[in-house]
Amino acid sequence: MTARLHAGTSSWSEKSWVGTFYPEGMQPGRFLSHYATQFDTVEADVTYYRIPDRKLVDGWNDKTPDGFLLAAKFPRSIVHAGDGPKPDPGRLLVLDHVGPDVEEFLAAMRRLGPKCGPLVLQFPYFNRDAFASAGPFLERLDTFLAALPDDMRFAVEIRNKAWITQPLLDLLRGHSVAFVLVDLAYMPHPNVLAQRLDLITADFTYGRLIGDRKAIDALTDRFDKVVVDQSKRLDGWAELLRNYMARTRDVFVYANNHYAGHGPATIRDLVERIGPV
After folding, report:
1. Helix-then-strand count for the chain, H and E
2. Is the CATH number 3.20.20.410 carried by domain 4-274?
3. What is the pLDDT of residues 5-26, one digit of tens each?
4. What is residue 186's three-state secondary structure?
5. Which of 152, 181, 165 is nearest to 244 (CA)?
6. What pLDDT is recorded for position 85?
7. Helix, strand, or coil here: 40?
8. Cα gap 190→182, rounded to integer Å
9. Alpha-carbon Rg for the chain in angstroms
10. Are the beta carbons of 268 and 230 closer than 8 angstroms?
11. Can you give the pLDDT at residue 216?
């Protein structure tokens, strides 16, 4: 079995792509339609900041062709729940508090029909004020995942590297939820993690090339070209995803502008390194 590879970028709304990725003079309202001629999937970032309304989701549907897949992040109100920079552990993932937002978000994403890709629970780093250890968080996560519908695909991103252990992976596997392979400044490269853990927990793989925001922002305020050579890390990604494509049905992978400076170039580079599928 060889998985279908779905490769794209994190968001499509970057205005500095005009003139490089988007044609000169293109207006933002036409970005997604053009994007969908270049890639077959995208990860929506806007959903982290607010639950999309019917008009917005229907617009995404209208601007993309059959076969296109739109992944999206769960809203901040669900995975963070704090009003300020600190997450609120008293509300986070607690269905009595976040249940209405979960229902509203899932109903909105269902409007995409077969174009709805995986939905990602991107958790922040939790200090001991939020959760004293991984155990209480995993108990909360287990209850939350059990309440999700089984006809949609979900993925979980963890940013506490010490929590990436067998109990977490077993929990996700029990719910057929994907463990997000994330390449982030302070996190171990997924290819390193894969040397000691089986990171496949669902029938699809989900990867995110995020990078080091502060380092890239120090180099550029535009995202129209690559400014950091990530060849070594991309080779690691290509090796890992080639292996995982033999074990899952679908592989989703998205590149952020802050990975190397220009998301579209990064993801095209990765696809080339993976080779024919």
Report:
1. 11, 8
2. yes
3. 999 999 999 999 999 999 999 9
4. coil
5. 181
6. 87
7. coil
8. 7
9. 18
10. no
11. 97
Percent of the chain with pLDDT over 70: 100
| Interval 123-147 mean pLDDT | 97
pLDDT, average across residues 192-208: 98
Tokens standing for residue 222 = 């535009």
Q: Where are the alpha helices (H) located in the chain, listed in sequence order?
A: 31-35, 54-62, 76-79, 95-110, 134-146, 166-174, 190-193, 213-219, 231-245, 257-260, 263-274
**Partners of 71 in the beta sheet?**
43
* Letter string b/e over residues 55-86, b meaning 16 or more CB atoms within 10 A of that residue's CB: ebbeebeebbeeebbbbbbbbbbbbbbbeeee
**Which residues neighbour 126 within 8 Å (Cβ) at sequence distance 6 or greater?**
87, 89, 137, 160
Q: Is the dihedral of CA 31, 222, 80, 191 positive or negative?
A: positive
User: Cα torsion at 75, 41, 204, 244 (round to 10°)?
Assistant: -130
DSSP-derived letter for residue 45 is: S
Q: How confident is the model at residue 156 (pLDDT cuts 50, 70, 90)?
A: very high
- Alpha-carbon gap, residue 21 to 219, rounded angstroms: 20
- Looking up tokens 């009003």 gives 83
End-to-end CA distance of the chain: 11
The answer to whether 192 and 232 have CB atoms below 8 angstroms apart is: no
Domain boundaries, the chain: 4-274
The enclosing H or E element of 43 equals: strand 41-44
255: confidence class by pLDDT, cuts 50, 70, 90? very high
Predicted local confidence at residue 82, as pLDDT: 87
Beta strand 4-9 with 41-44 is unpaired
Q: What are phi and psi of 110, to 5 degrees?
A: -65, -20
pTM comes to: 0.97
10 has which bridge partners? 43
